[in-house]
Known about the structure:
CATH superfamily of the largest domain: Spore Coat Polysaccharide Biosynthesis Protein SpsA, Chain A
Radius of gyration: 19 Å
Number of strands: 11
Number of domains: 2
CATH class of the largest domain: Alpha Beta
Oligomer: single chain
Distance between the termini: 26 Å
Largest sheet: 9 strands, mixed
Shape: globular
CATH architecture of the largest domain: Alpha-Beta Complex
Helix content: 25-40%
CATH topology of the largest domain: Spore Coat Polysaccharide Biosynthesis Protein SpsA, Chain A
Amino acid sequence: MRVPPSEAAVVILNWNGAGETANALDSLISSGLPASRLIVVDNGSSGDDVRMLRARYPTIKMISMRNNHGFARAVNIGAAAALRDGARYIVLFNNDAWIEPGVAVIPTLIDALAADPTLGAVGPLIVETDGDGAARIQSAGYRYSLFFPIARGQFAGARADGERRYRAVTCLSGSCLAVSAEAFRRAGGLDEDFFLYGDDVDFALRLRKAGYAERLVPQVRVFHRRAASNGIASSRHIYTGLRSTLILVKKHARWYHLPSATLTLIAAAIALTALNARAGRLDGAGASLRAFRDFLAGRWGGYEGSWAPEPLFSELEPLRFGIPAA
Length: 326
């Protein structure tokens, strides 16, 4: 028996990407989700994104912020609104992701959560299309070790049309993640120290500490365009990714993790710096050094030059990470 759609809410972030966000919303609506259960948080877009999306989707819930507060804080704001509306399940959905028409991805994920109270979150197979139009696995979940804190995906790059035995994973991709309201509250939402990247790993680790598991549901899949906002080799990608990894280690590692974790991160920073310097991308070459500098200085939660975000309007002020109590 399927969970009624009214018990779930989908939270989507938009930042200067109204066209992609519209594609994501269209795919969700075409899969059978009511528009009234879709929440878009605009993270300080500079153009007419909010006006365009409100005009095209008058029944969705639209939350507009003046500045870019980062992924985690914006998700928490959308999730807080969903919880106040009585949602029992929250689905995080990237604006550069989409669902094949008529495929009941979100209901399948929600049903998997409802069927097993030990689960805090579930996610689909995340795929992307290659140059030949074939679907290839982008994420089937990640294995993560604090000894060598670089997330490793299983079957990444393999064709998505074959039968495979998927292993249990440490965490799932935040591109599409369905979470029970109870688990979201108990874990405290996403940690707003992470401006971008790393929040999904941190959330999975905190879910585990709260007594929940995450599980891949490979029977359904979501398409996702890789790094649409930042670009794979951009200085922003390098800076935020490395700084978030440093924050993860700081928050979760024990003393016995630190020797190998430190060597791994230094090696990664040197490799990224060398590759960018060789390619003539000087800004990218300096991104690793800036990530270490700002991490050590305690400049977390914002991007470079944006460490003091504006106060949020009172009805969305957090108890902890923006999540209201039950």
